[in-house]
Amino acid sequence: MTNLHWCIPTIAAAALLGACTPQPSPGSFSRTEMMRPQTVEIGTLESIRPVNIRPGETRLGMATGAVLGGIAGSQLGGGTAANVAGGVAGAVAGGAIGSALQGSQNTPGLELTVRLDSGRRVAIVQPGSPADFRVGDRVRVIGNAENMRVSR
Fold it and tell me: Keyword annotations for this protein (predicted)?
């Protein structure tokens, strides 16, 4: 049981580090977007729909939880069978907890449908709240096919 004391702080630290991920916003840019030309099109906002933006599907939370849970679980019991059973149970429980922690980092966002002055219609999902825009707003659509955002 004394070997288990170091596992609990380790699992707690991993969970807290996952919560420190910076939240994106329409006004934040990544380093790869700096000093690169971006296409700008003007249009009219046709619809706003609140959405939930999930974190990336990296499986990092689940994998980290499974490893830490497996280590913690393997310290339980006195024999090989107990260690194996504890390791498997700990890995399953840790994976579920890690996945749940990562999934709890959802970001509120918007799906914005814009009719561009060119006649084309685009829908863009980005972080934000419904109070940020109103239907009928004249907006700018900035970026390229892989990375677009809407701003007023």
Answer: Lipoprotein
| Sequence spans of domains, the chain | 1-24+55-105, 37-53+107-152
- pLDDT tens digits for 36-82? 788 999 999 999 999 999 886 555 555 666 666 666 666 666 677 66
Structure tokens belonging to residue 142: 């900035």
CATH 2.40.50.100 fits 37-53+107-152, yes or no: yes
**DSSP for the chain?**
-GGGGGHHHHHHHHHHHHTTPPPP-TT---GGGTT---EEEEEEEEEEEEEEEPPPS--HHHHHHHHHHHHHHHTSSSSHHHHHHHHHHHHHHHHHHHHHHHHTT-EEEEEEEEEETTS-EEEEEEE--GGG--TT-EEEEEEETTEEEEE-
- Residue 67 CA, chain-centre distance (Å), reads 21
